[in-house]
Each structure stands twice: as C-alpha cells, then as structure tokens.
Amino acid sequence: MAKKKAAPEGEGTHRKGGKKKLIIIIVVAVLILAAGAAAAKMFLFKKIPASPEQARVAKETKETKLETLQLDSIVVNLADQDASHYLRITLVLAFPGGEEVKKKLEEKKFAFRDRIIQLLRKKHYAEVIAPDYTEKLKKEILSALKQSEGGQLEISDLYITEYLVQ
Q1: Predicted TM-score (pTM) of this structure
Q2: By three-state DSSP, how is residue 29 classified?
C-alpha cells in the first residue's frame, strides 16, 4: 500500500491563520457598520427647532415643570340674531411654577371666566364652527387673559378639553 503523504508543516498552520483573519475582518466590518448606523441616527433623527423662539420655549419647558389649572365649563349664547346658538367650552391653563403660582391663579379663576365669557359672547356661529378656529380662539383667549392682568400673567399654554357648538 501506498503511504499517505504527510502535509507539509506550513500548510496546516496556513488554514488556521486564514480562519482567524476572516473572523477578524467580519468583526471589524460589524463594528464599522454599527458605528455608521449610530452616527446616521444621531445626525438624521436629531430634533431641530423651527425657530429660536421655539428653541427657547422648549428649553424653558424642560427646565420648569408645568402646572395646570382647569376652569369650569363655560356656556355662552353666541351673537347670532337670526337663530339661537350656543358654545360650550372647557379650558385648562398651563403655567410654569409651583403651588404658589397655582394658588394665585385659582384666586383669579372667576375673573378669567368673566373675561372669557365676554370674549365668547361676541362670536358668531359661522365663525366658531370652522375646523381651524380653535387654534385662533386659543390665541385670542390667552391674549385677553394676559391683557386683563396687565401682561403680568405667566400662562404658557391653554388647552381646550371640551368644545361644543350648537
């Protein structure tokens, strides 16, 4: 019988070294892909404020906790002469500060309701049923409340939790 030839010493070690190199190349490739994915996520999905004002408001909101104060539902007859229509609205005021500010605003709750009623009674049915009118109304109410307090009011936002027109 013929004897099997023994593999030269250099060939056996060459194969093991090739596998190690392949594993190292795969690990390096995976690390590079992971770093690229992390960099892409950081640059592509970064939130950029639309304006400097929005950036300032966002920063202040993060720094200070917002408190809320819910006003009771308000029902008013609208200013239409030809038909009887009414508007029912419930509002929540959001403001920075703690219990001190909340207590101060609660004392003014009735004045706020009065100012809001005065504003809403001047509105007409056709005006208040428009789909995009609530945003405009929020701005008007905020402006009216701040104006009634001489610009000293620290309300940062206003939420409408109920809006019914009939």
Answers
A1: 0.60
A2: helix
